[in-house]
Write a structure and sequence with these properties.
Length: about 90
């Protein structure tokens, strides 16, 4: 969980590469936690900020597979990220 919160801290500081690494580490260790869906979206947003839309779209595809019925707020954030990354 500490890696998730580290990712959050780095993300708000615009340290997107470091944030992405923290989110990946958090998801590897704890893929089924309550904060995992948010971590996947934040990972995608970090990748978008790093100008890696293909990786962001792959991450968002994984979000859809892992969390087929997300909370409406998460679904909305994922959709916004998909639009920003111009996913197909």
């Amino acid at each position: 969980e500490a890696r998730y919160w580290l990712g959050e801290t780095l993300y708000v500081q615009d340290a997107y590469a470091e944030a992405a690494g923290a989110y990946i580490g958090a998801l590897r260790g704890w893929p089924a936690t309550p904060w995992a869906p948010d971590a996947v979206i934040k990972l995608a947003q970090s990748l978008i900020a790093l100008k890696k839309p293909v990786d962001a779209c792959s991450t968002l595809d994984e979000f859809a597979r892992r969390f087929p019925k997300p909370a409406p707020a998460l679904a909305s954030r994922a959709a916004a990220a998909r639009a920003k990354a111009q996913c197909r």
